[in-house]
User: What shape does this take?
Amino acid sequence: MDASIFLDKTKRPSQEDLIIALGKSFSYWKSIYDLVYLKYPDASSEWNFPGQKYGWSFRIKDKKRTIIYLLPGDKKLLVAFVFGQRAFEKIIDSKISEEIKLELQSAKVYAEGRGIRIEVKNRMILKDISKLIDIKLAH
Assistant: This one.
């Protein structure tokens, strides 16, 4: 499991910290952030520090739950989702990449659902992330 690059609990990451840490991956962060707010304008977002093991992460939420987690790494970006059973079934029946489907199928099932992390290596994955956001918002 990749921890955030930001491990100092006393220092919430700034936008400048994020730009430096992510490098060219910052453009993916911005695209995903903008995409969530385009699809769900009433979203709220916040930095979260669940513990030293994980470091700082950024989450975007609807009224009740987290839509997506953005996990900053060293020159890389991971996104994470948690899907309940109905959303999981919708993803399996969708045109989302087989790689994502396989990872989701093999994910451990918890009370809140199945969690998945996706490394955002290029713009091509943004299409699947957009579909996952849609499914998350619908279920």
